[in-house]
Amino acid sequence: MKLGYFFISPHRHFVILVVNLLGSSLVSSEEITVQGVGASFPAEVYAQWINNYMPTRRAFTNVVMYYNVTGSSKGLKAIQQDEFVDFAGSETLLPANASSNLKMLPTMAGAISIAYNLPEVKSYGFLLNLSREQLVGIYNGTFTHWNDTTFLQTNPGVILPGAEIIVLARQSKSGTTNMFTTALSAFDENWKQQYGAFSAGTVDGGNTPVKWNPRAVKYYGKKNSGMAGIIASFEYSIGYVVVNEAKKFDLSLARIENKAGHFISPDDEASIQKALDTYFRSSEEHSFTETLVDIPAEGIYPILGFTYMVIRLKYTERCEVAKELLRFIQWFTTDDYARTICTRENMVPITNELKAKIKREILLHMECNGASLWNMVAEDKKRENYVEEKWKTPVAILIPLFCLILLALFGYIIYQKLKLRKMINNNEWNIAIENILFYFEDRGYTKKSKMTFFKSIRSFKSINDIPDGEMILSQILQWPGRWKGQQIGIRLLNVPDFAHIDQKTKRELIWMREHILHSNVLRFYGLTEIDYNDRFAVNEYCSKGVLTEILQDGKYNLTTDFKFSLSIDIVSGMSYLHAMGLIHGNLHSSCCLIDSRWTVKIADWEYCRLYSIINPLKNPLAWKRQINGIPEDKDFIVSDFWVAPEILASNFLKFPTTTSDVYSFAIILQEIFSRDEPYIELADSMSIDEIFNAIIFNNLRPETNEDTPVQVRQIMEIAWSSMANSRPTFDQILKMLKHANPFRKSVLDSMMEAMEEYTEHLETRIEERTNELNLAKERMEQQLSRYMPKFILPNLISDQPFVVNNHLDNCFLGVELHEFKQFLAKRQMDDVAAVLKRIHFLIEDKTSKRNVCQIASETCTWIYLTGIENESDKTTRVVTIAHLALDWLGIFQNSDPHLQNLEIRVAIHIGNLHIGIAESPKAVYVFGTGLLEMKDLLNSSKPSKIRISKQVQDILAADKTFLIDEDATSSNTCYWLTSRTKSTEKAEEGNVSPVVTENCKTPVKDTKENQVERKEEIPLKNSPLHKDSQLALPLEHNSITAPPIQLNLPQIRKTSPLNKTSNKIFPLEQ
User: Fold this and answer.
1) Residue 688, helix vs strand vs coil
2) CA torsion through residues 334, 337, 340, 341, sign
3) How many CB atoms lie within 10 A of CB 865?
4) Are the CB atoms for 101 and 312 separated by under 8 Å?
5) DSSP-derived secondary structure for 63-86
6) Where is this region: Disordered (predicted)?
């Protein structure tokens, strides 16, 4: 349609379109369904009528119409019994007892053809002539073979075969059968008397006929299409079928003798139209159900008939359906295109006289709830015409607006052409090197990103003059920089032979810059010249580097969703490039860059196109190998692992294709899900050449990871198939990947999820480590509390200031092994170590239940004190120390087998003590007269004796709990603690066994449960109770060796108060 005609004479469908756009509010949302069933004779025409009528109503109502082919008899039965069947198609008349509310109106006329399958006759191009008697004789069994002489009379010169005639009829009850048998009855009086006109087929759809002569008719077909199919399949067969179905199967149609003695073809439309004109010359004289069979006139085909539409005249409900049915009838009786459809399907539309009669006698009398349907439809049409009139004003506005849009579009096209020409003339594809501010992102040498800015490298004579230039070039794939506010990167891949660039090449470069825009394709900005005639591509910069680095970096936890996201990004980019007519040609994982947002971008896609511009006759891959300096005698290199085998087999003579890109992606997909290089499993067993030979000739492919999903393995297998034509496209791969991972996440989302999982794991680990640290700190404090006062620990561990503390009237306890040097001389070192462990363990066992603190320790000397941390009186402190001294003395007097020939000297004293903390290094120092007097008193004590000072003697004597001896033989009176009183001993015997608890202070009853708990504890290596410590020895309890108890103790420094060489100042690390 020309544009002028479109504006001047807008078509009705354009009106409907405008109504759809501007008057959609008038369309009813409720669906109106009009249902028809019945004969197959008009089925093809009805289907096309419905398909063309419904669009004309779509602008005003939501109507749905359909017609099901069931046969004439079933159609009549349905409309009589089912109120939801709105019309029926039939060639059979309604029974006499049918409701008067049902009316039959003819919709079209058609011929019943006699189709046959005689290969010999068809091959000569003859059409068979059948007389009226011959046709009746075939169906009553008179003529059984094709070479019967009667056929030669009507077909002179035609050689007919001697084969038996295979006669076919309809299996089901049919209006077509009724029309055909009506014609046979008109042709022969005997047939009329014996068989008559009937529509029946076989009994219950079997092979037993209801009316047909079984000796003549032996085969039956379902519907017209079934009849035509059987005739086409069976040679020497004949049957009756509608003309359009016969032509679909290219069947030959017999010419039948009419009443005037002329042989007429059934597809002669003029003869059918002549029959209508002749018979309905005066439409008042005939009813709608008169037959057209065997009209006595020249040139008329004798087997004709109407096909009818059976409708209801009056409705009591479903008025909308009734109106739509009436409008449908109005449409196909008046619309020119409906008549064209009818003629095209070898049917003849009804005459104008018959249309007028149908309107006058049926349509005008249709009612719904007593109201005229014709008037109701007329009112609807007025409203719809008003709507159609409404479109004129909007269209009057839209047409100028549309013209303005066209003008704007043409202007934009012209502007773009002028802009393109300007960009070409100004060489905007060429980016001057001095306009780029370069920097070096040193990811290879430091963990943090370190940017070193410098002036344009144009200031150097050559790129080789840049300091450490070769090192930089070998470390980076993109040289980052800034140009016009954009962060760009120069891919250090040279594009040679571009000294003279013609207009076509410039246009191509501008097109790539302006039109290749996709989130997964590295944007191309242009070319830049570094050295003379050495041009490099300038693209957007991807700060995360290449995909290979991410895959092989163990610090990234790549989940399956993350791998799917990477794969989908690559496929999306390649699908876009192929849609734009670009073939990558050299796709591999190093061409997949990752930007700051973790989006994968396809790089190097422009090189194949640029190489093709330079030399269209040479394979870009072969040229690139030549440029990169690969020797001609070198067959393959590692980067060829991604090249399709068909290209490898051709020695790079075959050009890259879309299927070769798919193969390359399959190798990348294997890299992503295995996180390793392809063919790495063969690195130690095969050479590179052997691997490539296996790829080409033995269909070798990389080994897939066991964790790779099954769907991904299937994609790999079909994508790296050796048959290029069987590989899928990237669009198909994209659908398969999305189907394999329906809950798709972007790469950034997957990375964030992985980071969240890592953070959550890190928080859990920190919490675990914190708990371990707190437990170790608690245990350390418990251990240190044995060797220094508790109030010092916070100041020692933290940076809190500490003022020297003066403590008066502290009670000291000293213990020393007697003649330990002689003991060392007589024993092996292992025995000495075992004895020391035993002594230390037993001392700890006794002191753990007393509120005392060890302030000094040497190999054979220990000094404890009490009274610093508690508010107990002096008597309580002295009594506590006295009990502890007697306990220790008892250890060495109980004939322990480990302690044979060993004695101790013990002393108890009361005196002053001063405690402070040195700042740097952190250390505790202890001094005072009490400590010195304690050492002097210990040196004057005797073996297996407890020497006490005068102050201690006064307190213990007043307590009356202990027995004290006085020695006045020397110049100074000496006092000796000998034992407890008897009552005190009984009380001490009732005390609980000194089992050490976690805080090492509270005695707990030594039960079996506690023994089990102690067995499960594991001593720390630095604990004085550990088996490898010099301060520990397994405890024998009730003749059973008790396991060591787990305690934590910080490592002892050389100057610690626990070291045997310590003096008065005891540094201790924080």
Assistant:
1) helix
2) negative
3) 27
4) yes
5) EEEEEEE--HHHHHHHHHH-TT--
6) 1051-1070
Going by pLDDT thresholds of 50, 70 and 90, the confidence category of residue 1050 is: very low
User: How far is it, in rounded angstroms, from Cα 12 to Cα 6?
Assistant: 11
Model confidence pLDDT, tens digit, residues 676-715: 888 888 888 888 888 888 988 888 999 888 888 999 999 9
Q: How far is CA 233 from CA 229, 543, 635, 764, in A?
A: 6, 72, 62, 79
Alpha-helical (H) ranges within 675-746 are 688-697, 710-719, 730-740
Percent of the chain with pLDDT over 70: 76
Closest of 932, 1012, 940, 1010 to residue 972, by C-alpha? 940
Which residue is it, tokens 């008397």? 193
Q: How confident is the model at residue 469 (pLDDT cuts 50, 70, 90)?
A: very low
CA distances from 747 to 122, 427, 487, 563, 568 (A): 70, 37, 21, 8, 9
Helix ranges, 866-961 (H): 874-893, 929-939, 950-959
Q: Dihedrals φ, ψ of 1034, to 5°?
A: -55, 140
State residue 716's pLDDT score. Answer: 92
Contact between residue 820 and residue 860 where contact means Cβ atoms under 8 Å apart: yes
- The three-point CA angle 687-690-693 to 5° equals 150
Helical spans, DSSP H, in 259-334: 269-279, 319-334
Strand, coil or helix: 248 = helix
Name beta bridge partners: 441. 451
pLDDT at 1031 over 90: no
Separate counts of helices (H) and strands (E) for the chain: 37, 36
Per-residue pLDDT reduced to its tens digit, 651-676 = 888 889 999 999 999 999 999 999 88
Answer for the pair 45, 67: CB distance below 8 angstroms, yes or no.
no
Taken in order of first residue, the domains within the chain and their CATH numbers are: 32-369 (3.40.190.10), 433-440+476-744 (1.10.510.10), 799-980 (3.30.70.1230)
Helix axes 43-57, 319-334, angle to 10 degrees: 110
Q: Which residues pair with 614 in a beta bridge?
A: none
> 249: how many CB neighbours lie within 10 A of its CB?
17
CB 578 within 8 A of CB 732: no
Cα separation, 306 vs 299, whole angstroms: 18
Check whether 924 has a pLDDT greater than 50. yes
Using CA of residue 337, residue 341, residue 343, residue 348, what is the dihedral sign? negative
- Contact (Cβ atoms closer than 8 angstroms) between residue 339 and residue 265: no
DSSP notation for 1003-1054: -B---HHHHHHHHH----TTSTTSTTSTT--PEEETTEEEPPPP---PPPPT
Element (H, E) at 219: strand 217-221
Model confidence, pTM: 0.41
The predicted pLDDT at position 867 comes to 65
- Supply the pLDDT for residue 856: 72
pLDDT in tens, 235-274: 999 999 999 889 889 899 999 998 888 899 988 877 777 8
Average pLDDT, the chain: 77
* Most confident residue range from 122-126, 301-305, 848-852, 898-902: 301-305
